[in-house]
C-alpha cells in the first residue's frame, strides 16, 4: 500500500538549550544507537494470558481522526489504531519489501502487455462475512482518482493506468483500464497500464494500490462523503485477524478475533488500543498500563523508559522522517497541478539554504537524544541502502555560511532584520505542529536560531498549531499564513517520491515544481530503470538536486522504539508500520493475564 502519512507525533525532542553552539561547524553527524528488533517472553503462553486483554498505547498529542479505510487515511495514527483489522492489505511482501504470493491476493506483472493481474484468494471475506470481490479492488482506484475525493494518493504515477487520467478529470465515469475477467463479483482484476514500472514489484508503490475497500458496504455513499460516513466511522468492516468491538471516538479502539479471517485465528482474545499523550507515556509504562506502544515513543522519552522493570526495549530505524518545507507556489485547482511562483517570498534558494544551515540539529541529537534521533542528509532515508546517497552532506550547522548566502543573494540588514533584495520588509511565518513540551521547545529553538541569523521569523498564530489546523492551512490550494514549516512523513517500502514531490501531487504542499525535478522523478521508473544500477544512479541524482534546490530538506529521522512487556511473546518492531500486516497480530501471545 502506498501511503505518505502525516506524522503529527514525529518526535523531535527535549530541549532547553538557549545557549546552543555558535561555532562555525557543528558536531559530527549523529548516528542511531543499536537495539534489538524483537522480543519474546521466556516460557510458554498461557490460556489465561491469551484470554486477557493486550493493551497497546498510541502516543499522540491529539485525538485520532477516526477514518478506518486505508485508502482515505492520511495520518499514521488512524493506521495504528485500526491496524488489528489488517489495514485492508492486499499483498504479502518479503524481507526485501518485494511482493510475494500468500497474501489476501496474489500479483502477476506482465511486461509484454503492460498488465497487472490481481487474484483474490477464494476464502477471503470481510468481517461481516461478505466475500472479498473484484469490485473491492477496483473501487479503491475510483476513490483515489475521483476529482471530489478526500483521498490524497493520486499522482502522475497512478495516471499510467489506462483511462485513469480521463476519470480523474471527470471526462469519463469509469476507469477503462481496469477489467474483471470473471465479473465484478469474481476474484480477479486486470489493470492495463501504458507502461509498467520497476517500483510495482514492491509493496507500497505509487503505481499499484495495495489495499481493498468494502464496495457493497459503502456503495451507497458518495465518494466525496466517505470520510464522514457512518459505514466508515462507526460501523466499519475489516479483512484482517480482528474485528472492531467498540471504540471511543478519537480515544480508543477495542478488538476481538474476526471469525471470517482467511489466515490463522489470532491467539489473544482481546486487544485494546488507547491514546496517551507524549508527556504521559513514560509514566503510563512505569505504571504498567501498556504492553507496548504502537507507533513507538518520542525520542525524548528514551532515557525515561530504557530501564523500566518488566520491559525490554525493541526498535528499528524508521521509514519516517521530519522535513523542512518552504511555500514557493500554489495548487491550480483547474489544472490539478502545483505551480511554482518565482516571485514568492521564499523563492530564493539562498534564503532557504541560509535558514537550513542556521539550525544545529547535530548538536541537539548528540547531546540530548542519545542517538535515538539524528539528522538525515537527504530526502531518501538511509534504510533504503540501495538508493540512499550516504555521501551527501545535507545541511550541517554553519551560521557563517548562512550569513554569506544571504549576502550573496542581495539580502541586506535594515536595523535588526534583513529585508528583501528589493528593499521590502521580510517577515517569515513559521508553521510547526503542536506536540509534546519537548517538540514545542524545538520549534521555538528553530525560530530563535533564525532570528539570531537576522531573519524576522514568527510562528503562525504565535504558537505551534494543532495538527489538524496545521494540515488544514497547508492543504489550501493557495495560502500565505505559512512560509516555512516542519512536517513529518511515514514512507512505505518503495521510496519513489513522486507522490510527495511531483507536479500533480496533493502532498506537495510547498508547491515545488521544476522541469528538472519532473524529469528526475520520471527517470526513477522509466524503461531504463528496470536496470538496477541505472535506477540507483537516478535516485542519487534526485537527492543531490533536491539538496541543491532546498525547497524541501531533511530535518530528522529516528529509531522507532517501544518498551515491550515481559509477558508478550513474538513481538517484532519493523522498519515500517508492521502493525498493518496481519502476521504481526497473528503471532502475538501472552504468558500471563497481567503485565510483568
Automatic annotation (TrEMBL):
The record ties this protein, via Gene3D superfamilies, to: Dipeptide-binding Protein, Domain 3, Periplasmic binding protein-like II
Top-rank taxon: Bacteria
Q: Name one Pfam family in it.
A: SBP_bac_5
Q: Quote the subcellular location field of this record.
A: Cell envelope
Q: Where is the Solute-binding protein family domain?
A: 112-502
Q: Which GO terms describe its molecular function?
A: peptide transmembrane transporter activity
Tell me yes or no: is Signal among this UniProt entry's keywords: yes
Keywords, ordered alphabetically: Signal, Transport
Question: Cellular component per GO?
Answer: ATP-binding cassette (ABC) transporter complex; cell envelope; periplasmic space
Signal peptide range: 1-18
Can the keyword Metal-binding be found in this entry's annotation? Answer: no
Which GO BP terms apply?
peptide transport
Q: Which SUPFAM superfamilies match?
A: Periplasmic binding protein-like II
Family the UniProt entry places it in: Belongs to the bacterial solute-binding protein 5 family.
Protein name as annotated: Oligopeptide ABC transporter substrate-binding protein
Q: Which organism is it from?
A: Lentilactobacillus otakiensis DSM 19908 = JCM 15040
Amino acid at each position: 500500500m502506498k501511503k505518505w502519512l502525516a506524522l503529527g507525533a514525529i518526535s523531535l525532542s527535549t530541549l532547553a538549550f538557549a545557549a546552543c553552539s555558535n561555532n562555525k561547524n557543528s558536531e559530527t553527524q549523529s548516528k542511531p544507537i543499536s537495539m534489538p528488533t524483537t522480543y519474546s517472553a521466556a516460557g510458554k503462553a498461557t490460556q489465561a494470558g491469551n484470554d486477557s486483554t493486550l493493551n497497546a498505547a498510541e502516543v499522540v498529542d491529539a485525538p485520532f481522526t477516526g477514518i478506518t479505510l486505508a485508502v482515505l487515511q492520511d495520518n499514521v495514527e488512524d493506521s495504528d489504531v485500526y491496524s488489528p483489522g489488517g489495514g485492508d492489505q492486499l499483498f504479502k511482501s518479503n524481507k526485501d519489501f518485494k511482493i510475494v504470493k500468500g497474501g489476501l491476493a496474489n500479483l502477476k506483472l506482465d511486461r509484454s502487455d503492460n498488465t497487472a493481474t490481481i487474484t483474490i484468494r477464494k476464502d477471503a471475506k470481510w468481517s461481516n462475512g461478505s466475500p472479498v470481490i473484484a469490485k473491492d479492488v477496483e473501487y479503491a482506484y475510483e476513490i483515489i482518482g475521483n476529482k471530489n475525493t478526500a483521498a490524497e494518493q493520486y499522482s502522475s504515477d497512478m495516471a499510467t493506468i489506462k483511462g485513469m487520467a480521463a476519470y480523474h478529470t471527470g471526462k469519463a465515469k469509469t476507469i477503462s483500464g481496469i477489467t474483471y475477467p470473471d465479473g465484478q463479483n469474481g476474484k480477479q482484476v486486470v489493470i492495463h497500464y501504458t507502461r509498467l514500472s520497476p517500483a510495482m514489484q514492491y509493496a507500497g508503490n505509487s503505481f499499484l494500490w495495495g489495499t481493498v475497500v468494502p464496495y457493497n458496504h459503502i456503495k451507497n455513499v458518495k465518494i466525496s462523503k466517505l470520510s464522514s460516513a457512518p459505514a466508515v466511522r462507526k460501523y466499519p468492516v475489516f479483512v484482517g485477524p480482528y474485528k472492531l468491538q467498540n471504540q471511543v471516538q478519537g480515544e480508543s479502539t477495542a478488538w476481538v478475533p474476526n471469525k471470517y479471517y482467511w489466515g490463522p485465528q489470532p491467539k489473544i482474545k482481546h486487544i485494546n488500543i488507547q491514546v496517551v499523550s507524549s508527556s504521559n507515556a513514560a509514566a503510563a509504562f512505569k505504571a504498567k498500563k501498556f504492553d507496548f506502544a504502537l507507533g513507538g515513543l518520542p525520542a525524548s522519552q528514551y532515557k525515561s523508559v530504557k530501564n523500566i522493570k518488566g520491559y525490554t526495549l525493541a526498535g528499528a530505524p524508521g521509514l519516517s522522517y521530519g522535513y523542512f518545507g518552504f511555500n514557493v507556489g500554489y495548487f491550480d485547482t483547474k489544472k490539478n497541478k502545483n505551480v511554482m511562483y518565482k516571485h514568492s517570498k521564499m523563492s530564493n534558494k539562498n534564503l532557504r539554504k541560509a535558514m537550513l544551515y542556521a539550525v544545529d540539529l547535530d548538536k541537539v541529537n548528540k547531546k540530548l537524544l542519545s542517538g535515538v534521533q539524528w539528522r538525515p542528509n537527504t530526502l531518501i532515508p538511509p534504510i533504503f541502502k540501495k538508493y540512499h546517497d550516504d555521501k551527501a552532506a545535507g545541511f550541517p550547522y554553519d551560521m557563517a555560511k548562512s550569513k554569506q548566502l544571504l549576502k550573496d543573494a542581495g539580502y541586506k540588514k535594515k536595523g535588526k532584520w534583513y529585508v528583501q533584495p528589493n528593499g521590502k520588509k521580510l517577515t517569515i511565518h513559521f508553521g510547526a505542529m503542536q506536540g509534546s513540551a519537548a517538540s514545542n521547545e524545538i520549534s521555538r529553538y528553530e525560530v530563535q536560531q533564525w532570528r539570531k541569523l537576522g531573519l524576522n521569523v514568527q510562528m503562525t498564530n504565535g504558537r505551534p498549531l494543532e495538527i489538524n489546523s496545521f494540515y488544514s492551512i497547508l492543504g489550501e490550494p493557495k495560502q500565505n499564513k505559512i512560509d516555512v514549516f516542519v512536517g513529518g512523513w511515514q514512507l512505505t517500502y518503495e521510496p519513489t517520491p513522486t507522490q510527495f514531490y511531483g507536479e500533480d501531487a496533493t502532498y506537495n504542499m510547498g508547491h515545488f515544481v521544476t522541469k528538472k525535478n519532473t524529469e528526475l522523478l520520471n527517470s526513477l521508473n522509466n524503461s531504463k530503470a528496470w536496470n538496477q544500477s541505472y535506477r540507483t544512479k537516478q535516485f542519487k541524482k534526485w537527492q543531490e538536486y533536491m539538496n541543491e534546490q532546498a525547497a524541501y530538506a531533511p530535518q530528522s529521522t529516528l529509531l522507532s522504539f517501544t518498551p515491550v512487556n515481559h509477558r508478550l511473546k513474538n513481538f517484532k518492531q519493523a522498519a515500517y508500520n508492521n502493525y498493518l500486516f496481519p502476521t504481526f497480530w497473528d503471532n502475538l501471545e501472552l504468558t500471563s493475564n497481567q503485565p510483568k
